[in-house]
Amino acid sequence: MPSPSRPFGYKAFISYSHAADGKLAPALKAALERFAKPWYRRRAFRVFHDKTGLAVTPALWKAIQTGLETAEYFILLASPEAARSEWVAREVAFWLEHRPVSTLLIVLTDGTITWDDTASDFDWSTTDALPRVLEHRIREEPNYLDLRWVRADTDLSLRRPRFLDAVAGLAATLRQVPLDELIGEDVSQYEAARRLLRIAVGLLVIFAAAAGYAAYQANRASTVAGALEADRRARDTAARDAAERDKVAEAARLADAERTRAADALSRDLATKALGVIDRDRELATLLAVEAVQRSPTTEAEDALRRALVTHEPPVALRGPADVAVGGIEFSADGRRLIGVQGDASVWIWSSLASPSAPIALPRSLTAYPRADSVSATFSPDGARVLTSPFVEIATIRPLDSDRPAARLWDAATGRHVADLPHSYVQHAAFSPDGTRIVSVGFHPPTAIMWDARSGRRLHELTDDEEEVLSVDFSRDGRLFVTASKGDMVRVRAVADGRPVAQFRVPGTTYLKAALISPDGSRVLTMSGGDAARLWDWRGATGSPVAEMSAHEAVVDFAAFSPDSTRIVTLAGDDHTARVWDVATGRNLQVLEHDDFIGGAAFSPDSRWIATVSSDGMAVLWDGSNGRRVMDFGTYEHSRSAVAFSPDGRRVATGTADGQVLLESCAVCGSASELVSLAKTRVTRALTRDERTRFGVDGTP
User: Fold this and answer.
1) 121-122/385-391 β-pairing
2) Which of 31, 97, 125, 180 counts the most CB atoms within 10 A of its CB?
3) Least confidently predicted of 159-168, 176-185, 205-214, 475-484
């Protein structure tokens, strides 16, 4: 290796994986050599980059070794591919054998680097971007450069401010010059080259003109030269002013970035400390978590504050007219009203949750068949009406009066019967999202009917399905709806006229219970009587299967899409689990476990939270992003069998086996600012000076 007194042949040696960073390495080399380069030189300094990833021969290693021996710094482009490369490891090992570790610079291009303060080494359980030859070689956390964003960027030139910033920071380290001075030098060199070019062009013009008109222009030469000089001086002054402004702006940007980084680091540190004291002093934990959120609302800070604020408040109990299990709950869109459906096929409405009183019970003789197994009830999108329809198991069907109306509309405020939708053997009915249409489905042609929701007039009779149709579901934009036949046929239809835009069969099933369409209309989920739930991409003439959700140990009997269409929750109550799935891939993301039969699950309106209920009386709130159990709403003496979030996501309603609806508070479901406000109502004191010093609240732990 060169001695300190000898000059180095290369300022830096770049080690990288050709497969991962074959584009970035030469771009970084060229940018470093060009940055702050005097106009009269080819490059600012020389950078060596190897050919890792090509066929390795003894001659190639000798060339690489020569580059290593004559380089002043070692730049490692860290990625999982580089971590697995034996040649990158060999280059790093050679460097560490001959040079101090302080001359090794890390540039992260992909993967993860995690530092373990306790071990004074990288956390090798999560670090996947570094070769293991670095284990126990670096004793203090390195300040590496994060360039993972370049994977999505096609322009790696100094014209891009973000890439320019990264190159400037790296060049400042290599040249051991402050960043602001180096940026100023780059600007000065650039302006000097431009000035020389302008002067040269001006002189050529002057000499050419003088050669042709020497006699004529002799008198005006001094005037022209003076004007050019004045213009040059003015432009030089303007360039210096612009450069100074750019320096000030860059300094301000760097200062802002540093303040943000410091605030994020302090926020995470305070969040960790809050969780460390939460078991012995919840009040102190709350105060520390509030400070963390106010410094910067990082994910860690919000999670710590939410855990510190978790507490169970007694629910508001709404009792139905009978001690019969509540099997269905729905809030109106404004959150002021509530529907409860009981196991005896009776429906009741709470017309005002602001001042709850006795519910309005709809006449069972009008909401259900005499032999109805259950009833569905739903609010219109504006909350002004309620739509009811009965459900009868196919095996129990006997001839009924074909003219008897079975789907009905009701006034949500008074419970008054408004209109009938005559459809024999109707099994399900639903409003379109804009509230202008209703679709009912049943047993005999027409198996599906579209109605005008305001007048009750029939718009379309859909007779293309010969088998019984058991379910209907709308996409959120109201352009599509999906129907499921008893046998195995799924049809995606246009709301405009009810005609199928796609249809497909679900193989291997004899009883298709239901089909749901995702809110964004891109996927269809099917559930069968004795089969797994399946996810389909319906777009095209026929559906394409995405995944089979077969991880449950029992038949899936409930499923729901998240409002943002990214996830699905399924229940197979007999295996005591709810499972969360990724809609894009069909992959199982989380398993939510209860100790007993799970009777219901629901996503919050923002798709962040999932609530579940079970037969042992438990109601649980889960973080849908990671499956963490956030809080228990408490155990009720009877089983819980239904659950729903209020439209604002701040309340959870659960139905019980003894005919009650329990309104539970979900205050911890709020945003960061709402959590801080809640904390200030629960903890009235402030951190003491000693506590602020002891926990480093002001940034000096």
Assistant:
1) unpaired
2) 31
3) 205-214
Is the Cβ–Cβ distance between 492 and 500 less than 8 Å? yes
Listed in sequence order, the residues at least 6 apart from 153 whose beta carbon sits closer than 8 Å to its beta carbon are 160, 162, 163
Q: Residue 393 is which amino acid? A: E
CATH of domain 10-177: 3.40.50.10140
Rounded CA gap, 482 and 494, in Å? 9
CA distance readout (Å), 240 to 34, 39, 205, 492, 653: 21, 18, 26, 66, 67
Task: Judge whether 127 and 112 are in contact, CB under 8 Å.
Answer: yes
206 Cβ contact list (under 8 Å, min separation 6): 221, 224, 225, 228
Q: Contact 451/389 with Cβ under 8 angstroms?
A: no
The DSSP bridge partners found for residue 74 are 13, 104
The residue that leads in pLDDT, 243 or 5, is 243
Query: What tokens appear for 117 in the block?
Result: 């303060």
Q: Rounded to whole angstroms, what are the CA distances from 40 to 32, 34, 189, 192, 627?
A: 17, 12, 10, 10, 61
Q: For residue 346, what are its two tokens?
A: 């009776």
Residue 465: Cβ-neighbour burial (10 angstroms; 0-12, 13-18, 19+): buried
| Cβ proximity of 87 and 81 under 8 Å | no
Amino acid letter, residue 212: G
pLDDT tier for residue 261 given thresholds of 50, 70 and 90: very high
b/e code 190-201 from CB counts within 10 Å (16+ = b): ebeeeeeeeeee
Joined tokens for residue 68: 């290593």
Whether the CB-CB separation of 310 and 631 falls below 8 Å is answered with: yes
Measuring CA to CA, which residue among 15, 27, 21 is closest to residue 75? 15
Quote the CA–CA distance of 669 and 676 in Å, as a whole number: 12
Predicted structure pTM score? 0.64
Tokens at residue 11, please?
Answer: 């300022």
Mean pLDDT, residues 185-192 taken together: 63
pLDDT of residue 553: 80
Per-residue pLDDT tens digits for 106-157: 999 999 999 998 989 999 999 999 999 999 999 888 988 999 988 777 778 7
Amino acid letter for position 642: A
CA distance 54 to 87: 10
Spatial contact of 668 and 630, defined as CB atoms under 8 Å apart: yes
Per-residue burial over 246-285, b if 16 or more Cβ lie within 10 Å, else e, is eeeebeeebeeeeeeeebbebbbbbbebbbebbeeebebb
Greater confidence (61 vs 394) lies with 61
Strands 47-49 and 10-15: parallel
Domain boundaries along the sequence of the chain: 10-177, 182-309
Quote the DSSP letter at residue 554: S
Q: How far apart are CA 26 and CA 634, in angstroms?
A: 61
